[in-house]
TrEMBL record:
Whole-protein coverage range: 345 to 512 of 512
Source organism: Dactylococcopsis salina (strain PCC 8305)
Localisation per UniProt entry: Membrane
Name of the protein in question: histidine kinase
Domain Histidine kinase: 1-151
Length: 168
């Protein structure tokens, strides 16, 4: 499906507002919409997982920042928290299945299986995107998800071609 990433993220934030009253969410969207070709259900899972982590690993009351913007050929979603952060040495490992950073930190969070991010990475890459993390211990963490921008007019042209071919 082709969807506007910025509008979709806004919808997901509305959805989380129904059960989240611990962390305010701040959302910055681009002036011009960015269209991407993704599966809505999978993308929803990705965004909800990242928001869930951001909340779990930061004090309640701390604002979570989401931003969508265009960077060259890509539409980029950044999810930033001001939480406990992830040590540099572990930043590549968090995408592994069942990997959780230091159980001692679980006093902070309510536990988990360590599967969230491995699923997120699989889903993002399955849709042709990439995910990266940048984090500073004690300062916070940003996950950045990126998808190629598709132009809707190109899509329509392709559809027309397909339709034309049918009758040849
Ligand atoms: P699950 O998502 O399966 O309920 P989980 O949150 O522990 O469990 P992941 O989402 O895969 O598992 O995250 C792996 C680990 O990465 C977490 O245990 C946590 O230590 C660290 N982590 C993930 N997101 C953040 C974040 N925003 N801030 C700090 N640490 C994080
Ligand atoms: Mg998680």
């Amino acid at each position: 499906q082709t969807i506007d990433l910025d509008g979709f993220v806004a919808q997901i934030i509305d959805l989380t507002e129904q059960y989240n009253d611990s962390h305010p969410i701040n959302y910055e969207s681009p002036a011009v919409s960015v269209a991407v070709c993704v599966d809505e259900n999978r993308l929803k899972q990705v965004i909800l997982n990242l928001i869930d982590n951001a909340m779990k690993y930061s004090e309640s009351g701390q604002t979570i920042n989401l931003r969508v913007d265009q960077q060259g050929e890509n539409a980029v979603l950044a999810v930033r928290d001001r939480g406990i952060g992830i040590p540099l040495s572990q930043q590549t490992r968090i995408f592994e299945r069942f990997y959780r950073v230091d159980e001692a930190r679980s006093s902070f969070a309510t536990g988990g299986t360590g599967l969230g991010l491995s699923i997120v990475k699989t889903l993002v890459e399955g849709m042709g995107g990439t995910i990266t993390v940048s984090s500073q211990l004690g300062e916070g963490t940003t996950f950045t998800v990126s998808f190629p921008i598709v132009s809707e007019s190109v899509d329509r042209a392709t559809q027309r071609q397909v339709a034309t071919r049918k009758w040849q």
